[in-house]
Amino acid sequence: MKHTYGFTLLELLIVLTVISIITTAALSNLLKSSRTNALKSDARDLENIFAISRMEAIKRNCSVTILFNKNDQDCLTFIDSNHSCEFDPPQETVLLRYNLSSAFFDSSKSDGDGLSFIENDNGYPSLRWDNRGLPHRNGNGFGAGTAYLCNEESHYCIIVSKTGLIRIKPY
Predict the structure, then answer these.
(1) Contacts of 33 (CB under 8 A, 6+ apart)
(2) How far, in Å, CA of 84 to CA of 115, rounded?
(3) What 3-state class would DSSP assign to 97?
(4) What end-to-end distance do the CA atoms of the chain give, in Å?
(5) Nearest to 32 by CA among 102, 98, 99
């Protein structure tokens, strides 16, 4: 009787099929995790912009405004010398400009723009920090609000309270 060593073609095909199924499942989970982490990164960056703007307002003893452009998915932080929540280039200094890299403002929230901050006279949502680090809106009153961020995988919001507390949470 002759012994043959090795695998049959059918056995090899079954093993390759199992390996390809496991690899496909692992890659899809890896891609989902990567997109979720990118969204978390954008949320943390936006939270840091809020905190830096607040600290700059206190440090410089002036108003600092964050102006959101929902169409371009970005925000502009500047020293707001006239407290108007509007950027006037000749006399106001830009501190920071930030574009969302992998997330976008969730259009299903806050009247379709993903931002619950009050709009300035030009129609852009804005948040102004006073020299004591308290948030204000265009006109009078405190500027509490929320920025809703999302991508294909997940949703996060950055919340600013009336006392200036900034936090991130999934929704």
Answers:
(1) none
(2) 19
(3) strand
(4) 69
(5) 102
Residue type, 157: C
Sign of CA dihedral 25, 30, 33, 34: negative
26: left (phi over 0), alpha (psi -120 to 50) or beta: alpha
- 142 with 160: CB under 8 angstroms? no
> What's this model's pTM, rounded to 2 decimal places?
0.81
Q: Helix, strand or coil for residue 4? A: coil
User: In the numeric block, which tokens belong to residue 152?
Assistant: 């294909």
* Average pLDDT per block of 10 residues along the chain, 171 residues long: 79 93 89 89 95 96 93 93 88 92 90 87 91 86 89 93 95 91
Cα dist from 139 to 79, 84, 100, 119, 122, whole Å: 17, 8, 27, 10, 13
Phi, psi of 45 (to 5 degrees): -60, -45
Closest CA to 66 of 116, 80, 123, 165: 80
Tokens of 118: 């009050």
One-letter amino acid at 132 equals R
